[in-house]
Amino acid sequence: MGARAIVIGSTGLVGKQLVEQLLEDARFDKVVSFARRATGKTHAKLEEHLVDFKTPDAWADKVQGDVLFSALGTTLKQAGSKEAQYEVDYTFQFNTAKAAAKNGVKDYVLVSSASASASSMLFYSRIKGELERDTEKLGFTCMTYVRPGLLGGDREKPRAGERFAEGVLDVIGWLPGLGNAKTIQGKTVAKAMIAAWNQHTPGVTVLHNKQLFVLGA
């Protein structure tokens, strides 16, 4: 019998690729998406729940499966305020992870940040660090924290300046010791997430950009 994957952030850059790859992966019998809007996909293995992440009590009991892939995220510009960004990047993801752990989900794979640190002076880095710190306490058997560099790929809402930054990082990323700076495609991160889950390594595993390129090759 195949595994049941849960995905949040399934309409984002990494999450969209993740859902596509999971649907084509014979190791998974079911892919369950929790999202604010539909993916637009139709597949026999796909089960979609359109939810309001502000009211977890309405859907928390449905967060059941073998692994939770958490790829939800936004930017300060898109969110409109630090409070709104924190809600998406921390609160929504933590509440989903808490529900998954309570329901007996064993594995957790999170798209974090290369600079994640709960003690960081940078707001975004601190959010991701706090999320790593707090989900680690939830009791999952296997926890994988994926820390990619700048993400490349087609976004529904292109971010100003990222195309230029991608070009610069693609050049310097080949320099010795700077592999973690290289732009990585969303589909590569998604593939690495699935590969990391398949290793079933107990405890906490942190994967940096260079390791993601290897796993996602």
Sheet-strand content, in percent, reads 15-25%
CATH fourth-tier homologous superfamily:
NAD(P)-binding Rossmann-like Domain
Strand order of the largest sheet: 3-2-1-4-5-6-9
| Biggest beta sheet summary | 7 strands, parallel
User: What share of residues is helical?
Assistant: 25-40%
Cα separation of the termini: 27 Å
Q: What is the CATH third-level topology name? A: Rossmann fold
At the first level of CATH, the class is Alpha Beta
Q: Find the count of extended strands (DSSP E, 2+ residues).
A: 9
What's the short version?
By secondary structure, the chain is α/β, with parallel strands linked by helices. 38% of the residues lie in helices and 20% in strands.
Description of the structure:
The protein has helices at residues 13-24, 76-79, 82-102, 123-135, 162-172, 186-199, 209-215; strands spanning 3-8, 28-35, 46-50, 67-70, 107-111, 142-147, 151-152, 184-185, 203-208. The protein has 217 residues and is of the alpha/beta class. The chain has a single domain, classed as Rossmann fold (3-Layer(aba) Sandwich), CATH 3.40.50.720. A seven-stranded parallel β-sheet has the order 3-2-1-4-5-6-9, with helices on both faces. A two-stranded parallel sheet has the order 7-8. Helix 1 crosses helix 6 (186-199), helix 3 packs parallel to helix 4 and helix 6 crosses helix 7.
